[in-house]
């Protein structure tokens, strides 16, 4: 069972119905006690509809109507949908393989960590976009921005990108996409 992709439904109807009935019963008892205390204070008999006291009759009618309303409203199941979200972190490594003058051949590696597991669950596939931007100083020496796309990477086919760059400062931006969700990591590096 994968908690990240499963949906959970909690049915609130029976619980709501029980809580509402308990509140109604308590309210009815409160109204009855209030009425009894008022009745004892007044000695003359007050009659309403068909010789019955109107307050008790109306309170009984309201309670029955409320119970019937709750019953019909509870026929349609209501639920709460809880969806778990993935926590994705991207580990970025770079290593200079060789240098010639001010040019460096650099190897970049990215490892997506999904909920603490490198490369996520078995069968997870990642699309990775590399964006390497030179600082203004390095760009003035002729280094252009580098973009590279990797498709369907996994623990069996890991992410690795090798390129030649001028020495200096760069901003490395990685966008990792899994199951339609994108996650971004930015890192400043010195080569």
Task: Give a description of the structure.
The chain is of the alpha+beta class and 191 residues long. It folds into 2 domains: 7-82; 88-190, Immunoglobulin-like (Sandwich), CATH 2.60.40.10. The protein is built from 3 helices and 10 strands; from the N terminus they run βααβββββαββββ. It has helices spanning 13-41, 54-74, 136-140, and strands at residues 7-11, 79-83, 88-100, 103-114, 117-118, 126-134, 146-153, 159-166, 169-178, 181-190. The radius of gyration is 35 Å and the shape is rod-shaped.
Could you write a compact summary of the structure shown?
The chain is α+β, with helices and mostly antiparallel strands and 191 residues long.
- CATH 2nd-level architecture of the largest domain: Sandwich
Query: How many domain regions?
Result: 2
Specify the CATH class of the largest domain.
Mainly Beta
Strand content: 35-45%
Derived from helix and strand composition plus strand pairing, the structural class reads: alpha+beta
| Shape, per Cα inertia axes | rod-shaped
Q: How does the major sheet shape up?
A: 4 strands, antiparallel
Can you tell me the CATH topology of the largest domain? Answer: Immunoglobulin-like
Separate helix tally: 3
Uncertain regions: pLDDT < 50 for 5+ in a row?
A: none
CATH superfamily of the largest domain: Immunoglobulins
Order of helices and strands: EHHEEEEEHEEEE
Percent of residues in helices: 25-40%
Span between termini: 44 Å
Mean pLDDT: 79
Give the total of beta strands.
Answer: 10
Alpha-carbon Rg, integer: 35 Å
